[in-house]
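As the work plan foresaw, the team has encoded backbone shapes as discrete tokens. One protein thus recorded appears below exactly as we store it.

:::
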Amino acid sequence: MSFNEKLSTLVKRHEELSALMSGGGLSGESFKKLSKEYAELTPVVDAFQELEQARLEREELEPLFSDPEMKAMAYEEAERLDEIIPELEQALKLTLIPQDEADSRNVILEIRAGTGGDEAALFAADLFAMYRGYAGRRGWKINVVEASENDIGGYKEIIAEISGRDVYARMKFESGVHRVQRVPKTEAGGRIHTSAATVAVLPEAEEVDIQIDSKDLRIDTFRSQGAGGQHVNTTDSAVRIVHIPSGLVVEMQEERSQHKNRDKAMKVLRTRLYDLKRQQLHDERAQDRKSQVGSGDRSERIRTYNFPQSRVTDHRINLTLYKLDEILIGAALDEIIDGLVTEAQAEALATMNH
């Protein structure tokens, strides 16, 4: 099916849906289903109609080029339309890119210190502060689910839930290995070290996405371990859940209540199982295809933060910004993510055109 034929089919379907919904007689569930499809098609139809209107206006200018009184105005208007028509064509193509149904979901963010010991744990804390700042700027809420700190304020691991509008659509590009080059606070000699932390961004699963059979779970309780103070508990409130078929293990001890820890652990387990399911599907689809930018491969080194030169480089799109401080508070992170979104859209359009 050609591009124009596909568009024609979608516009016709949009009209059909409008007629069906205004006709009445639909059950609540049927109406909801048709409304969802209608809402998904509306941006495509709006973009198509805007483009068609611009093309029509451009066509209607042709006879005016030979009119001495209207010629100057007609050429000026034609120049404006010749500029915006390609932009409208591109905008229309972007509306046709299949949307990842997970884009609108909240996420579970997992950051783990990698190579580099205490310095890697401090860097993991820096990354979490960056995402916390970014979430605040976008009006998202961030809530720590579980944290394992070291003695100097770093995180061996931190898990958080980020909720808000289209969180996964932006945050999915952050999955991968983040590398830091700097003189560690723990290093007196002043030598630059390279450390790393791994970021995983998982779209949060609903109960309907993943059905977990209680027979597939082994649940243990134990006493919370901590560095002291409020994190140490005198009861067996910590929970470890093993999902036997997949081998996934989730431990939770942040809360004082065993019930709350169990609920949190189940939410994380469900999300990891959902991610596993999505990853398997992605691998099947991408078997014979080059991995696309933003694929979320968490073994891939995606970004380097160089402190001596205040430089951040995203290796997937070869983008370097000398805005380290602004990026680490989340203020300039959109500059990188916007570049990754544009690249992902270009890849999707190239795939669509083949």
In short: Residues 227-231, 288-297 have pLDDT under 50 and may be disordered. The first helix runs from residue 3 to 22. Helices lie at 3-22, 28-61, 71-95, 117-137, 167-171, 258-285, 324-328, 333-353. Residues 107-206+297-353 form a domain with the Alpha-Beta Plaits fold (CATH 3.30.70.1660).
